[in-house]
Specification:
185 residues, UDP N-Acetylglucosamine Acyltransferase, domain 1, seven-stranded mixed β-sheet, 4 helices, 22% helix, galactoside O-acetyltransferase activity, Acetyltransferase, transferase, LacA-like
């Protein structure tokens, strides 16, 4: 099994090999072009993302600058929006639902590393998927950690660090992010 196959399965893998390096390099080149385009070239920007992401709908929007690790693990929902400086480390699958609003400076991480320094020195990592369900609003400056699911219609307050899954229809804030109250459906 290749390191890429291990990564996509969520197994331990080494990211330093040629195949994954080349995949990241390709994403970096697309991101460089995307982020260098004139702001008026919206359709060209969206077409670059359509060619990189695992799934894109007809209507979506991501502000410049934007960064991702591979791109092909990102599945973007209809009418979903990301503001400036969104970073998605998509070693694992990242699913963005429909009508999601992502504030500026949001980080979404799927990569995990060993806690043991000896294991980290072997360059091993693994990825846990992230799912952001339909109708979610993520406030600016939020970090979403690996393995998190944010439930439908929930709101994550600005500056939160989401370390655990959040249920549907709640307001959650803080570091670590925690549910404050239920929202009206």
């Amino acid at each position: 099994m290749t390191e890429k196959e291990k990564m996509l399965k969520g197994d331990w893998y080494v990211s330093l090999g040629d195949e994954l390096f080349n995949d990241r390099q390709h994403a970096n080149e697309v991101m460089f072009e995307y982020n260098s385009l004139h702001p008026k070239e919206i359709e060209k920007r969206m077409n670059l993302l359509r060619g990189l992401f695992g799934y894109t709908p007809e209507e979506f929007y991501i502000e410049q600058p934007f960064r991702c690790a591979y791109g092909y693990n990102i599945h973007w929902g209809e009418k979903s929006f990301a503001n400036y400086n969104c970073t998605i480390l998509d070693c694992g699958k990242v699913t963005i639902g429909k009508n999601v609003m992502i504030g500026p400076n949001v980080n979404i991480f799927t990569a995990n590393h060993a806690l043991s320094v000896e294991e980290r020195m072997k360059d091993l990592e693994y990825a846990d998927p992230v799912e952001i369900c339909d109708g979610v609003w993520i406030g600016g400056g939020t970090t979403i950690n690996p393995g998190v699911r944010i439930g439908r219609n929930s709101v994550i307050g600005s500056g939160s660090v989401v370390t655990k899954s959040i249920p549907d229809n709640v307001l959650a804030v803080g570091n670590p992010c925690r549910v404050i109250r239920t929202l009206d459906k």
